[in-house]
Amino acid sequence: MTPKKTKVLLVLSRAVIPADGGRETLILDFIRRISPHCEIHIAFFDNKRKPLNEVMPEYEKAGISSIIPLKRPSAFNIFRNLLSVKPTLQEALFYSHENSKSILHIISSKKIDVVYFDMIRLFRYALETRKYSTARIIYDLDDLLSLRYSYFMESDSKSLNLLGSYSNFIGNEKIKSIINTLGRLLLSIESRRSLKREIEASRVSNVILLTSPAEQHIYQERIKNSIATFTNFPVIEKPRNTRPLDHSNSKELIWLGNNEVPHNLAALENLIKSIKPKLKQHRLQIAGKTSGKTLTEFSGIAGIEFIGYVDDIDSFLLPGKILIAPFKFGTGIKIKLLEAIAHRVAVITNDIGFQGIPFKENTCFRPLNSDDDMIAAAQRLSSDEGFLTKWLDEQSFILDRYFSNSYELEILKSALD
């Protein structure tokens, strides 16, 4: 007799197909890993430009049984949310009573065993799921946003778009303008409220997931209870047809990411303004979603090319190229760095980029925290083939040791115990 599959509902703040960002990639990876063991349903806020009917085959291919779109709250609902309780700002942007009823109906009608929630912005839904159902809860915090916002406040970046890639989530331009104008004041409030919600998440959940081992340790110190916490590392696969290392590629600098997200935009600005001018012999290719404002500011600079969204990642991430990621703020694992490592691209980054990536055994591939150190490393990688090979070998060792095993069965077991 075939054993009954665990029924899992994932409540997501975003669509995950197409996976054009690190967070989408991580969630989709988790879905694919649990799909052999579970019957999967998802409810999500659709923030993609592609109509749902066009991507449905991809969702089915990932092992998803049903999809339920959630509705964006109206401006009136957002305003009422802000006045009625003291939530995080992002909760107010995502919560509606109508959506909560839909989620509870799915849990009841489909006899859901486990509900997975995506980030602290969906806390109100998790709270009501705990109150009105018997389903077990996996809460994936991703990063500790209380820390991210603290780093954000300390940065000197002028790209203080608090909404980031969710700017198009709010149709009302006045609300967007108010949020961004208040800037650091809102960040300070949001950091404090996020800390409170992160602690409260441990009280309504059965399992907590975080991407970074460092943040897992910080979180366990903060909550001081015995809830199961896991680092939900993505499983990063090396390309099937590995191309040979070409040392001439080391004259090619690359950048890959969603450049409308504040931490990516701040890093890209630093790369273009402070690092690339001192690497005159190198060409810089920039891939990923980029705003018109950024394109206007930086297009036309000699040696720099914006190529937009890349469909064929294998042809972009060629062995021996160099990816420099001078992050100013941000937390958690940067999926694009792991993907580059899998393709034998030399990755140069700092402590922020290394969050979630172990490196103690390394002599070459380690955090570099100044622009000058990153520039010196790029120059040596381009001129010393032996150094480049050793750097890439250390990256491969980390990938094989830490990112080739998955823990989805332990996560599910802990949720159900």
Descriptive overview:
The protein has 417 residues and is α/β, with parallel strands linked by helices. The protein has 16 helices and twelve strands. Helix content is 45%, strand content 16%. Strand 2 (38-45), helix 2 (52-61) and strand 3 form a beta-alpha-beta unit. The longest helix has 32 residues, at 173-204. The protein starts with 5 loop residues before the first strand and ends with a helix.
Q: What fraction of residues sit in β-strands?
A: 15-25%
**Residue runs with pLDDT of under 50 for 5 or more positions:** none
Topology order in helix (H) and strand (E) letters: EHEHEHHHEHEHHEHEEHEHEHEHEHHH
Query: Which class best fits the helix and strand makeup?
Result: alpha/beta
Helix proportion range: 40-55%
Strand order of the largest sheet: 3-2-1-4-5-6-7
Major sheet details: 7 strands, parallel
Distance between the termini: 23 Å
- Please tell me the overall pLDDT: 88
CATH architecture of the largest domain: 3-Layer(aba) Sandwich
The CATH superfamily of the largest domain appears as Glycogen Phosphorylase B
Pfam families: Glyco_trans_1_4
Organism: Pseudomonas jinjuensis
GO molecular function: transferase activity
Protein name: Glycosyltransferase involved in cell wall bisynthesis
